[in-house]
Amino acid sequence: MNTAPTPISQPPESTVWQGSPSQVINLPQYLLWALIFAVLLTCGVILLESMDSAPAAAKLIFAIVIAIPWVIAGWKWLVLSNMRYELTTQRLRMRRGVFNKHLEELELYRVRDYKLEQPFFLRLFSLSTVILQTADKSTPVVVLRAIARGESLREQMRTYVEEARMRRGVREVDLDQG
């Protein structure tokens, strides 16, 4: 009589945290595009006023040119607002994409090291960046940028990584080459 091995019982996976990067990381670009818009608007108004009667084509070109900074800033906002992170008890999911959606998953037992960065600009807004070094070939480094309560998230991640390693019986072995 041939019996199949019994699978290891896994606790159910549940979501413990969800978040997305803050639009604050786009702030320098938004300011740059606002400045470019102001310069284009000023130059365009001066140019159109200097003509006695501006042709309709010139007005149309002017309208298109001053719309470009708004379109670019809007696209930057859209790209960032479509990024989502989800931490479960077993993995980290990263979703991104406006038209074409991408989902990357990282099994937590593959995380090797954690790093928390709090640059001055992000600290002004109580944000931080969590960087994970992993053993995953497709995503050796995972960066969660401009996250609120990053230190708490890093500690939470650390707990679930250790639990995932224990469940799977995974150990980290460092070999020094000397």
Structure description:
It is built from 4 helices and 7 strands, in the order βααββββαββα. It has helices at residues 27-50, 56-81, 120-123, 150-168, and strands at 15-19, 84-88, 91-96, 102-107, 111-117, 127-134, 141-148. The protein has a 4-stranded antiparallel beta sheet with strand order 1-2-3-4. It has a 3-stranded antiparallel beta sheet with strand order 5-6-7, covered by helices on one side. Strand 6 (127-134) and strand 7 (141-148) form a beta hairpin. Helix 1 (27-50) runs antiparallel to helix 2. The protein is elongated and about 80 Å long. The mean pLDDT is 88.
Short description:
This protein has 178 residues and is α+β, with helices and mostly antiparallel strands. 41% of the residues lie in helices and 25% in strands.
The amount of beta strand, in percent, is 25-35%
**How many helical elements?**
4
**Widest sheet: strand order?**
1-2-3-4
- Quaternary state, please? single chain
The gross shape turns out to be elongated
Structural class: alpha+beta
Q: What's the gyration radius in Å? A: 25 Å
